[in-house]
Amino acid sequence: MDLGRLEANAERMAQKASRLGVALRPHVKTHKCVEIGRIQSGGTPGPITVSTLAEARGFAEAGFGDITYAVPLPLPYLPDAAELGRRIRLNLLLDDEATLAPLEAFAKAQRTRFRVFLKVDCGYHRAGVDPRSDGALTLARRLQASPGVEFLGILTHAGQSYACRSRQEAKAVAEQERSVMDQFARRLRQSGIPVGSVSVGSTPTCCAAEGWAGVTEIRPGNYVFFDAFQAAIGSCEAEDALAFSVLATVIGHYPGRNELLLNAGALALSKDPGPVHVDPHCGFGRLYTAEGLPLRHLRLSSLSQEHGLVQGLAVADYARLPVGSCLRVVPNHSCLAAACFDRYVVLKEGAVSEEWRRIGGW
Amino acid sequence: MDLGRLEANAERMAQKASRLGVALRPHVKTHKCVEIGRIQSGGTPGPITVSTLAEARGFAEAGFGDITYAVPLPLPYLPDAAELGRRIRLNLLLDDEATLAPLEAFAKAQRTRFRVFLKVDCGYHRAGVDPRSDGALTLARRLQASPGVEFLGILTHAGQSYACRSRQEAKAVAEQERSVMDQFARRLRQSGIPVGSVSVGSTPTCCAAEGWAGVTEIRPGNYVFFDAFQAAIGSCEAEDALAFSVLATVIGHYPGRNELLLNAGALALSKDPGPVHVDPHCGFGRLYTAEGLPLRHLRLSSLSQEHGLVQGLAVADYARLPVGSCLRVVPNHSCLAAACFDRYVVLKEGAVSEEWRRIGGW
Questions:
Q1: Domain spans, chain B
Q2: What is the model's pTM?
Q3: Is the domain covering A3-224 a CATH 3.30.300.130 domain?
Q4: DSSP label at B255?
Q5: What is the spatial order of strands in the sheet that B259-262 belongs to?
Q6: Is B335 part of the contact surface with chain A (CB cutoff 8 Å)?
Q7: Confidence grade of residue A316 (pLDDT, cut at 50, 70, 90)
Q8: Per CATH, which fold does B239-357 belong to?
Q9: Does B89 touch chain A (CB under 8 A)?
Q10: Of A81, A154, B108, B126, which sits 20 to 30 A from A202 (CA to CA)?
Q11: Touching A: B residues 298-327, CB under 8 Å
């Protein structure tokens, strides 16, 4: 993990949020590392977003006191969420009456309240209520009136932005994400339902957006590392924004088929297929020398558990990459590849400075 | 992890190996768990295959004393391999003169010897020497004559069997794997190079093979768990061979688009695309009720980091799978999905009996 690149990525997004008048609540699921979380909020623990209760607990222990758990709450986790919610501001997501009823019953029995966002579907069609539906209004009203709930506002994730092929396309999705949420907030307010937070965010839309009128906070995550996917769809403009890579060793030369073998496979890089909609031959990541020079004539064409097979597009440069030498893979999806490891090796100005722990599990 | 199913899978392969006169050296990369390794070798530590030195060290500590590290040796790992090789029989793989020279120099300097297999390409084209080439013979001769090397024999992995669509097709690949190795062993012996072990193995070929003439040992790994991929290509005949599953919680109902949402995504199941060559619509695993009844009308159609989206093929049965309930996913590739966890919950006759640790890292 290249500290200089990461700090620049963090600073760029923080400045954009500040300039456009929204709060930044980074999604730490990308890195799950408290040191990186602190960098993202300017050196001290700030508001964050997490994808697991394990992250929430780990960051809470490190002093982070305002955490949004951005997956619709799995009901078996209610007791753990309540326990953590007594120590910090833990903000939950809900999009279903079927979750609200047991949550209310639990809150009543335990004499507690849950801080809850209404999750909205702005076009991704993964989770969230349809903001044009009657049911969305009914559920918001139920949340607002529930004695077991502190209704925080509305939240969405424009995951459809990952289908974009350029920053221009992502800009249109960002505007869709913003306008859907702004209109839904107005609809709720017109119905007498106060809306505090209007929360949006995905890295492609947060990088491309030019304004967030009506939005109060953004929750990008991947922007702090970026990866081969984000580079291909234009979320980051320069290769020097790519802050996370996997160092692999060349373990074989096969000049007969113009291939090299690496000791990095699916368990070091994940099997994310990458930006195939932009480049069907993208392979499993971008390749660089250990020092960071691009190896554009090589493609990481297939992965098995612990092997990565590299194809030479021109003749592979075996002398430059002898057996036993190292090269860098910037993976397709840094959130998934980083999850293959339990710590980061931190590179500061090209030299290893320290190791930072990741929080795994659920 | 269903203990009864796992024990039956282990027993079936052990009996087949015994019946057909070959040693069984299971590849423990699938589970990386010493308790399971012991079951595979009949209750006591037996010869095993590993994919990382971390596995080798972990199993060595648990009493396994004959371990093949079945990835062409990354040169930076030479000192660690030498250290471990002083304590147990650690068998390395080599397919390249470029690795042999530094290995010999290291052996000489450290006054040690490395136990080495010559890795052979029997048609997978990932690693290994071409057994028809002059270079293969030259390298075998070099290994046999090297003072730093104890030449153990030849080893291959017919990974091309994963492209098979049926047990019938895998049988043909198994015969190819066997005959390539048998012929190469004869060629070496005719050239005056003694060949001890002739080692083959992949789960599809080991399940399909009907004879191993000329082979001394087999190294299947996945057969102890199986998965949706192996079931689709006919490696296991019955669904009750599927010993590994991920228990997930339903976190949303979306009847408008006939979908359910699970809290199991790419970090719990891996993004292995599965047997798309057999069923382009296979999705990311097979779905079952928590009790193990198949849910054939549902498809796990997409995964993000912590979400799994389930499509109803017929109308999804929401009453049977209420929000908060659990279901089981048998993943596409159990070796990759198991690596998402640090331990197994062991089910014995349907009840949780204990937890077994996995060995992660490299």
A1: 3-224, 239-357
A2: 0.97
A3: no
A4: G
A5: B285-289, B326-331, B246-254, B259-262, B308-312, B298-303
A6: yes
A7: low
A8: Lyase, Ornithine Decarboxylase; Chain A, domain 1 (2.40.37)
A9: no
A10: A81
A11: 304-307, 309, 322-324, 326
